[in-house]
Design a protein that fits this description.
By secondary structure, this protein is an all-alpha fold. About 60% of the residues lie in helices and about 0% in strands. The protein has helices spanning about 1-10, 15-20, 25-35, 40-60, 75-85, 105-110, 115-130, 135-140, 145-155, 160-175.
Length: about 180
């Protein structure tokens, strides 16, 4: 379910529909508190990552497009939840995720949007390029992510956390041991 919602959240003209359902509330609760003892660390981060991605895509449209007025789902509360979640994750967590393109994630880095959205996007790129370099570094290169991360980290107002993650990812992209072809998994 979260995978489908994530795909919908990547499409700008469909995103507002997500705010019309209780799924937003569920996504937010999964982001903030999903931590079943019976689930593995991989399962927990996968669910929280997907919830944060959905919310980051929606929040990247800005506060004027935010349709929810409940106090627990205010724009600022959701942004704070995204930031707290991302800051709690291990950058080397192995996840079972499959992207065919980084363009939806890179779009968040291209638009003027809040820090937590950009933090989620840069964390996602760094994590994927660190843990599955053969698959995702060539994709980052192909989709123009290296240039975008270089530009982002050189911006005078770039927060240290984003600068640090961007630097890690760019350095990985320049690794000569990673070929130009995307490895299938």
């Amino acid at each position: 379910m979260l995978g489908l919602m994530g795909n919908i959240a990547e499409v700008a003209h469909i995103r507002p529909k997500l705010q019309e359902s209780e799924d937003m509330l569920r996504s937010f609760y999964m982001l903030r508190s999903y931590n079943k003892e019976s689930d593995s660390e991989c399962d927990i981060i996968e669910i929280r990552y997907s919830a944060a991605g959905i919310l980051s895509h929606i929040c990247s449209d800005g506060p004027k497009r935010w349709q929810l007025s409940e106090e627990e789902l205010s724009y600022d509360t959701v942004l704070k939840g995204i930031e707290e979640a991302v800051d709690s994750w291990n950058i080397n967590s192995k996840r079972s995720i499959n992207y065919k393109s980084f363009n939806p994630i890179l779009h968040i880095l291209k638009v003027d949007c809040p820090y937590p959205c950009k933090l989620w996007a840069v964390w996602a790129l760094t994590n994927l390029c660190q843990t599955k370099a053969g698959r995702f570094v060539p994709m980052l290169r192909r989709d123009g992510g290296v240039e975008l991360l270089n530009k982002l980290k050189e911006a005078p107002d770039c927060p240290e956390n984003i600068k640090r993650l961007s630097t890690i990812t760019v350095m990985k992209a320049y690794d000569p041991n990673i070929g130009p072809e995307i490895e299938e998994t």
